[in-house]
TrEMBL record:
Residues 179-284 form the Late embryogenesis abundant protein LEA-2 subgroup domain. The lineage of its organism: Eukaryota, Viridiplantae, Streptophyta, Embryophyta, Tracheophyta. This is Late embryogenesis abundant protein LEA-2 subgroup domain-containing protein. Residues 13-23 have a biased composition (Polar residues). The chain crosses the membrane at residues 117-143.
Length: 313
C-alpha cells in the first residue's frame, strides 16, 4: 500500500472477497450470540510498485545521504491491519470468568480435602478412645484394682528438745523418722513399684517447713503389707517466738501436731505388664505426745490421691 492511496486491482478484488466472507461470518456470529462476534478485522492489500520513470532518469538522492540502489518490492507481500480498540492489554472477560470459575473450584476441592482430613482424624480419636475404654474395662474386670492404704505407725522426733526454753540455741536441726505402713492386701493380682527417684517426704508445723526426705524404692507384691521407715532432715532453722511458744505449749498438752506430705512415683504391675509412672500423693496429720525419739502417736489421719480413675477411693 502506497501513500497516494492507490490499490492494485487484484488486491482490491481479493480484499473485497475476503471482506465479504468476514461480513457473512460476522453476521452468523451475531445472529447466534452477540458476545461471540469476531474480535479482529483483517484487511489485506498488495503493495503497488512505484511509477516508472523515463529511460535514463534516476531518482534524485539527497546530497548528505549515500546513494543506494532501489530495492524491488517482494511479490506476495500483504499488510494486516488490526483496529486499535481490538488490541487487548488485559485478559478479555471470557478469560477472567474462566479463571474465577477454576479458582472457586480449586478452593472448594481444597476445603473438601481439609474437611475430609479432619473427619478422619476425629474418627481415629474416637476409635482410640473406645479402644482405651474397652482396655480399661477389661483390666478392671480381670484385676479388680484397689487403692493401697497408707498410715503412719510412729514418728520419732529429734533436734527440737527445749524449743520452748529461752536458753535454747537459736538454730535447730530437726529430724523425723516416720514408720509407714503400706497395705496392698486388697489387690490379689496387682503389684506396686515405688520409685525412690523423684519422691519427696516433707514435715511441717503450722505451715513452717521443718524437714525433707525421700520415700524408699521397693516393690510391693499383690496382697502384701510393707512397713518401712521414711526419714526427713532439716538444718539451721530459726523459729519466731510465736512458733516456739506454740510448740512448747502443745508439748505440755501432750499433743504436738505435724503435717507429713508424701509424693512418690509408682508403677503398677499387671501380670507381665508394667504401666507408666504416676505420682501418688499422701497427706497425713500426726500428733505426738513429746518432742523426743520416744514420742508416741496420739492421733493420726491420712488421705491418699491416686490418678487412676478405675481405683476406688
Amino acid at each position: 500500500m502506497m501513500n497516494d492511496g492507490r490499490v492494485h486491482p487484484a488486491a482490491a478484488a481479493t480484499s473485497s472477497d475476503f471482506s465479504g466472507e468476514m461480513n457473512q461470518s460476522q453476521s452468523a456470529y451475531s445472529s447466534s450470540d452477540p458476545s461471540s462476534s469476531p474480535l479482529y478485522s483483517f484487511h489485506f492489500e498488495k503493495p503497488v510498485p512505484p511509477p516508472a520513470l523515463p529511460h535514463g532518469h534516476q531518482p534524485k538522492q539527497p546530497q548528505h545521504q549515500k546513494t543506494t540502489p532501489p530495492q524491488k518490492p517482494q511479490p506476495g507481500t500483504y499488510v494486516v491491519q488490526v483496529p486499535k480498540d481490538k488490541v487487548f492489554r488485559v485478559p478479555p472477560p471470557e478469560n477472567e470468568r474462566l479463571f474465577q470459575h477454576y479458582t472457586r473450584r480449586a478452593k472448594r476441592q481444597s476445603g473438601c480435602s481439609c474437611l475430609r482430613a479432619c473427619l478422619y482424624l476425629l474418627l481415629a480419636i474416637v476409635c482410640l478412645a473406645v479402644l482405651l475404654a474397652v482396655a480399661v474395662g477389661v483390666v478392671y474386670v480381670v484385676y479388680k484394682p484397689r487403692q493401697p492404704a497408707y498410715s503412719v505407725v510412729s514418728l520419732a522426733v529429734s533436734g527440737l528438745a527445749g524449743v520452748g526454753n529461752a536458753s535454747a540455741p537459736g538454730a535447730f536441726t530437726p529430724g523425723f523418722d516416720a514408720t509407714v505402713r503400706a497395705d496392698n492386701s486388697r489387690n490379689g493380682k496387682m503389684g506396686v513399684h515405688y520409685d525412690g527417684a523423684g519422691s519427696r517426704v516433707a514435715v511441717s508445723y503450722d505451715g513452717v517447713s521443718l524437714a525433707q526426705g525421700a520415700w524408699p524404692a521397693f516393690y510391693q507384691a499383690p496382697g502384701n503389707v510393707t512397713v518401712f521407715v521414711a526419714k526427713a532432715k532439716g538444718a539451721g532453722l530459726r523459729f519466731s517466738e510465736r512458733v516456739r511458744g506454740q510448740m512448747a505449749a502443745a508439748e505440755r498438752l501432750r499433743s504436738v501436731p505435724f503435717d507429713v506430705d508424701v509424693k512418690v512415683p509408682v508403677r503398677l504391675q499387671l501380670g507381665g505388664v508394667k504401666t507408666w509412672a504416676v505420682s501418688v500423693t499422701v497427706r497425713c496429720t500426726i500428733a505426738v505426745d513429746r518432742l523426743a525419739a520416744t514420742a508416741k502417736v496420739v492421733s493420726r489421719s491420712c488421705s491418699a490421691k491416686v490418678p487412676f480413675l478405675f481405683w476406688r477411693i
